């Protein structure tokens, strides 16, 4: 499975961005796709995930502001980010795992999001 993240950029606080994660390869085996982020000097942290059934999960820090969705026909997962804050600044990675995987096995290259105050 290959993942390609895109959509990052520079935005002012309060603004919005939509990240995309395009999957290729054995996509029919993907059970969960997630977004993680890593800010400078910090550990990578979970942001949101969605299963192929549409079940979603969010980090408390983004609940009510971010929405994860998927388009199975396009093998894509999206992260709509609204009301962005400077603390959302990070490199965002999409990741995928099969139902048999305990942890995320496949990772994209990351897309940088910078939120200015």
Chart the SSEs and their pairings.
Layout: E1 2-6, E2 9-12, E3 17-24, E4 30-38, E5 45-51, E6 56-58, E7 66-71, E8 76-81, E9 90-98, E10 106-107, E11 111-116
Parallel strand pairs: 2-11
Antiparallel strand pairs: 1-3, 3-8, 4-5, 4-9, 5-6, 7-8, 9-10, 9-11
Give a short summary of the structure:
By secondary structure, the protein is an all-beta fold.
pLDDT below 50 for ≥5 consecutive residues: which ranges?
Answer: none
- Cα-based radius of gyration, to the nearest Å: 13 Å
Overall 3D geometry? Answer: globular
- The SS-based structural class is mainly beta
**Which percent range fits the helix content?**
under 10%
Order of helices and strands: EEEEEEEEEEE
End-to-end distance: 37 Å
**What's the number of extended β-strand segments?**
11
Summarize the main sheet: 7 strands, mixed
**Residue-averaged pLDDT:** 96
Number of helices: 0
β-strand percent reads: over 45%
Any overview of this molecule?
With 117 residues, the chain is an all-beta fold. Helix content is 0%, strand content 56%. Strands 2, 4, 5, 6, 9, 10 and 11 form a 7-stranded mixed sheet that branches. Strand 7 and strand 8 (76-81) form a beta hairpin. The termini are far apart. The mean pLDDT is 96.
Main attributes of the structure:
mainly beta, 4-stranded antiparallel β-sheet, 117 residues, single chain, globular, 7-stranded mixed β-sheet
């Amino acid at each position: 499975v290959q993942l390609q993240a895109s959509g990052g950029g520079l935005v002012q606080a309060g603004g919005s961005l939509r990240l995309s994660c395009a999957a290729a390869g054995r996509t029919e085996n993907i059970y969960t796709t997630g977004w993680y982020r890593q800010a400078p000097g910090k550990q990578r942290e979970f942001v949101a995930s969605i299963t192929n059934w549409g079940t979603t999960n969010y980090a408390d820090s983004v609940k009510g502001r971010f929405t994860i969705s998927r388009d199975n026909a396009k093998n894509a997962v999206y992260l709509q980010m609204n009301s962005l804050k400077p603390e959302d600044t990070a490199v965002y990675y999409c990741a995928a795992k099969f139902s048999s995987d305990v942890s995320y096995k496949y990772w994209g290259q990351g897309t940088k999001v910078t939120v200015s105050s």
